[in-house]
Design a protein that fits this description.
CATH architecture: 3-Layer(aba) Sandwich
Helix content: 40-55%
Radius of gyration: 17 Å
Mean pLDDT: 95
Order of helices and strands: HEHHEHEHE
Number of domains: 1
Structural class: alpha+beta
CATH superfamily: NADH Oxidase
Largest sheet: 4 strands, antiparallel
Strand content: 5-15%
Length: about 170
């Protein structure tokens, strides 16, 4: 059998993005508590995410969001990493309160945010090992949040993934 890379690339990228999901899941977490959600978006859902991001950009007059909406259409897959909200009980004061129990309403536990960042780093490290093109995007993550795709998450970060001759997520217009 002969395989042409162009004919199998999409499925290969999906499989490699699944490895990125595992890397995000196994990343270290505060107190060993796993409150992360990791989702993979492909095909028509990428177009839906792009449309939502474009609308947000137009509503807020944010050219970067409109640019990112166009840009993610070059992705074979998009990894979404988010966190449910849970105070870790460390009383670290990074959120601005000396005691977790005194945190203001709507103030996220900083450890939750750090956990997302570590998971993003692990997923992107796996992508680099696999020679995939990526970019970390808050904008596409926010569009996913507004779409209600991960309702249990307080915030979501997106990582579009591609395998092409040039990384489509850099040197953008």
């Amino acid at each position: 059998m002969i395989y042409d890379e162009r004919e199998i690339r999409h499925q290969q990228v999906i499989e490699m993005a699944k490895q990125m999901m595992v890397a995000a899941r196994t990343a270290p977490k505060a107190r060993g508590t796993d409150i992360l959600e990791v989702v993979l978006v492909t095909d028509d859902d990428i177009a839906a995410l792009s449309n939502a991001l474009r609308q947000l950009g137009e509503q807020r007059n944010r050219a970067g969001m409109i640019r990112d909406a166009e840009n993610i259409l070059s992705a074979e897959a998009i990894l979404l990493i988010g966190s449910r909200e849970m105070a870790m009980g460390l009383n670290c004061a990074y959120c601005g309160s000396d005691n977790c129990d005194l945190r203001g309403e709507g103030v996220p536990c900083t450890m939750n945010t750090i956990d997302v960042g570590i998971a993003i780093g692990s997923a992107c490290a796996k992508a680099a090992d696999l020679m995939l093109d990526t970019r970390v995007m808050y904008s596409a993550g926010y569009a996913a949040y507004k779409l209600g795709w991960m309702t249990q998450c307080k915030y979501i970060i997106a990582i579009p993934v591609s395998a092409s001759s040039k990384n489509p997520f850099f040197d953008r217009k």
